Amino acid sequence: MQNFSKKLNRIADDTNNYLRKIFLKKKKYSNLIKSMEYSVFSGGKRFRPAIIVNTGKIFNINYKKLIIIGAAVECIHSYSLIHDDLPAMDNDDMRRGKLSTHKKFNEFTAILAGNSLLTLAFEILSSKNLKLSSKVKNELITSLATYSGFLGLAGGQYLDLTLENRGISKKKIIDIQNKKTGKLFAFCCEAVGIIKEQNLKKRKILRDIGHDIGLLFQIVDDLIDFKEDSQNVRKTSKIYKNEGKPTLINLLGYKETLIFANNLKNKINKKIENYGIKSDDLLQSVEFILDRKF
Ligand code: GRG
After folding, report:
1. How wide is the angle at C-alpha 124 spanned by C-alphas 82 and 54, nearest 5°?
2. How far out from the chain centre does Cα 86 lie?
3. Of 85, 151, 90, 82, whose CA–CA distance to 120 is shortest?
4. Atom of ligand 1 nearest to the CA of 74
5. Per the structure, how many domains does the chain have?
6. CB atoms near residue 263 (< 10 Å)
7. In which domain, by residue range, is 20 found?
8. Residue 242: which pLDDT band, with cuts at 50, 70 and 90?
9. The domain spanning residue 239 has which CATH number?
10. pLDDT of the residue at 29
11. pLDDT tens for residues 74-121?
12. Of 226, 264, 240, 225, nearest to 165 (Cα)?
């Protein structure tokens, strides 16, 4: 795992360096960049770019191309976190141990920084630095746009906020989490199939793996939150942060959710193993999700 952590760090550094170059070039044009930079460089793990790189490895795809696509995905991810923290949504003052963007700046700046990061993602994918055919770029853009919008991230967030505090089924919870978190991971794996110009059937296999990785990531995130919250509740008698939220833990309890996560991991691994020896780093990424503490 130590060796694998080094690999993850390298991917994170390369993603950060690519994004830094973009921000450096654009800095002189707008002060809004400061709030975008604040959010993008506040210590994210860059786990989505790692999934792109490790899926790309199976098919021998050029590393730089994968890093550029990962940088675009991180812009979408940062946008979603900025907006999620706003008072109209989750109303969080802190993110990654620092003030959330609207607390550091103000609400209108945070909204506009989020919007600009969303559009920057598509600037990155359409840029001439990404050496892919127009057809492939077009498909990458269509796919990322679809998965970010009402059928994906935004749609999942809408359901999450709308259905808070209502008794909902396991199927519905999984649907919300697939949209809110799974779709961006689905893109990370499917992007590789798009670059390889695979047929729809093969692309779907990668997309489904990504979806399940995203679902696992979200469930583990909820498990981590639950553990942290339980400690805080014991110390401060505050209410649970995720009380009333549509999560599997709230429906099934901690132990059952852990079993569900382990079964899901085994299902994902079986699918990935079909790709042979080159899928080793992707398999380790899945292990990393369950082992992670933050
Ligand atoms: C479209 C506004 C909008 C929101 C979409 C993504 C999202 C829905 C909300 C963000 C809050 C949240 C808990 C999302 C679930 C995905 C998730 C586990 C985010 C945290 O991702 P990490 O751990 O974050 O990769 P870092 O800080 O490492 O980048």
Report:
1. 85
2. 18
3. 82
4. 29
5. 1
6. 10
7. 2-291
8. confident
9. 1.10.600.10
10. 84
11. 999 999 999 999 999 999 999 999 999 999 999 999 999 999 999 999
12. 240
Q: Cα of 109 to ligand 1 centre, how many Å?
A: 19
* Mean pLDDT, residues 42-64: 97
Cβ proximity of 287 and 273 under 8 Å = no
What sections of 86-182 are H helices per DSSP? 101-104, 107-126, 134-148, 153-162, 170-177
- Does residue 247 contact residue 229 with C-beta atoms inside 8 Å? no
Q: Whose CA is nearest to atom 7 of ligand 1?
A: 80
In 3-state terms the chain splits into helix, strand, coil percentages (rounded to 5) of 75, 0, 20
Considering the entire predicted model, what is its pTM?
Answer: 0.95
Ligand 1 site residues (CB inside 6 A) read 44-45, 47, 77, 80-81, 83-84, 96, 153-154, 156-157, 180-181, 217-218, 221
Tell me the C-alpha distance between 178 and 58, whole Å: 24
Question: Considering only CA atoms, which of 184, 183, 186, 189 is closest in space to residue 54?
Answer: 189
Question: Per the structure block, which two tokens stand in for 60?
Answer: 């021998």
Ligand 1 atom, smallest distance to 84 CA = 2
- Token digits for 284? 């380790």
CA–CA gap between residue 195 and residue 136 (Å, rounded) = 6
Beta-carbon contacts of 68 under 8 Å, excluding residues fewer than 6 positions away, are 18, 124, 125, 127, 129, 130
pLDDT value for 239: 56
Residue nearest to atom 27 of ligand 1 (CA): 44
Could you report how far apart the first and last alpha carbons of the chain are, in Å?
16
C-alpha span between 156 and 167 (Å, rounded): 17
Angle ∠(90,93,95) on CA atoms, nearest 5: 85
Paired tokens of 150: 């009402």
